[in-house]
Specification:
Subcellular location (chain A): Mitochondrion inner membrane
Shape of chain A: rod-shaped
Oligomer: heterodimer
InterPro entries (chain A): QCR9, QCR9_sf
Largest sheet of chain A: none
CATH class of chain A: Mainly Alpha
Distance between the termini of chain A: 65 Å
Strand content of chain A: under 5%
Number of strands of chain A: 0
Mean pLDDT of chain A: 88
Number of helices of chain B: 8
Number of helices of chain A: 3
CATH topology of one domain in chain B: Rieske Iron-sulfur Protein
CATH superfamily of one domain in chain B: Rieske [2Fe-2S] iron-sulphur domain
Family (chain A): Belongs to the UQCR10/QCR9 family.
Protein name (chain A): Complex III subunit 9
Number of strands of chain B: 10
Number of domains of chain A: 1
Strand content of chain B: 15-25%
Largest interface: A-B, 15 and 15 residues
Mean pLDDT of chain B: 77
Membrane topology (chain A): Single-pass membrane protein
Shape of chain B: elongated
Structural class of chain A: mainly alpha
Chain lengths: ~60, ~270
């Protein structure tokens, strides 16, 4: 529980540092959540999206 | 008031609400009997701290109410006959055991509580930010409106020294292909003799091309190109003269012709908007 104690003393003990922790955490959580959601969406629609099939059409244009 | 009613003598029958007490028809079901209560010893030296310390002191079965004339009334502790609810389902596992010190686990429990609070707030902040962003971005122009607000002009259609007018966002747009002589003349104009001082290089991206809104800054007429004293634009309504950079030189207009935002994706085209 040394980790929990140090985290509490460093981040949660003061309201100011608690609020800063929440703000910074929200920034990272947003990145993680959005990119994770996009990754799941692309995983489920693999082969159907334009960026997955784009190379098929680009080759024809060049010829 | 009562004493006044009592002393009012002859008027007292009229000033009383009820003159006589009348026996009611109802009788008490159980007549009140004064029962001598059993002796109940309370040890005053033993401190009352919690439910356990009370257990030796108080009666456990039913409300113990005793009435006697001289002795003190029986002691009834409400919490002795009320069953204390069991909150152990709601307690954290560290504090289930009442004989163990809770201070050993207080750091971990506190850190966990704050962690849960913080994580909830982080998710809440993210949700609130997303909702606000959605609503605010729904107010901005959509992609089709933005596409309509741009105009793409093919520059090779405009010969040197000629001005062409396009309609852009409901307003006339002047695109002027300047000659080398015009460029040199406008670049050499002394700023002190201008009403709205602005250097020519601040008004153009490529010196060959002057792109300005064809709306006179005086009262909004459309100026005539290649006319006026300065070889640029001339407003026929009230006689404002603009030079080949669209700057006001003579007449009532207060400001230079407005320069919209534009960019050159390649040498042949310009996109305004």
């Amino acid at each position: 529980m040394a980790l929990a104690k140090s985290v509490y003393n460093l981040l949660f003990r003061r309201t100011s540092t608690f609020a800063i922790t929440i703000m910074v955490g929200a920034v990272f959580f947003e990145r993680m959540f959005d990119q994770g959601g996009d990754a799941i969406f692309e995983q489920m629609n693999r082969g159907k999206l334009w960026k997955h099939i784009k190379h098929n059409y680009e080759n024809k244009d060049e010829e | 008031m009562m004493s006044l009613a009592a002393r009012s003598g002859a008027f007292s029958p009229y000033m009383q609400a009820t003159a006589f007490t009348v026996a009611g028809p109802l009788k008490a079901l159980i007549p009140g009997i004064v029962v001598k209560g059993e002796k109940f010893l309370v040890d005053p030296k033993k401190p009352f701290l919690c439910r356990e310390t009370l257990s030796g002191q108080s009666p456990k079965t039913g409300p113990a109410v005793t009435v006697s004339i001289n002795a003190r009334a029986g002691v009834r502790f409400a919490h002795t006959d009320i069953k204390v609810p069991d909150f152990s389902d709601y307690r954290r596992p560290e504090v289930q055991d009442p004989h163990k010190s809770s201070q050993e686990s207080s750091e971990a429990r506190r850190a966990f509580s704050y962690l849960v609070t913080g994580a909830t707030t982080v998710v809440g902040v993210y949700a609130a930010k997303t909702v606000v962003t959605q609503f605010v971005s729904s107010m901005s122009a959509s992609a089709d409106v933005l596409a309509l607000s741009k105009i793409e002009i093919k520059l090779s259609d405009i010969p040197e020294g000629k001005n062409m007018t396009f309609k852009w966002r409901g307003k006339p747009l002047f695109v002027r292909h300047r000659t080398e002589k015009e460029i040199a003349t406008e670049a050499g104009v002394n700023l002190s003799e201008l009403r709205d001082p602005q250097h020519d290089k601040d008004r153009v991206v490529n010196p060959s091309w002057v792109i300005v809104l064809g709306v006179c800054t005086h009262l909004g007429c459309v100026p005539i190109a290649n006319a006026g004293d300065f070889g640029g634009y001339y407003c026929p309504c009230h006689g404002s003269h603009y030079d080949a950079s669209g700057r006001i030189r003579k007449g009532p207009a207060p400001l230079n012709l407005e320069v919209p935002y534009y960019e050159f994706p390649d040498d042949e085209t310009v996109i305004v908007g």
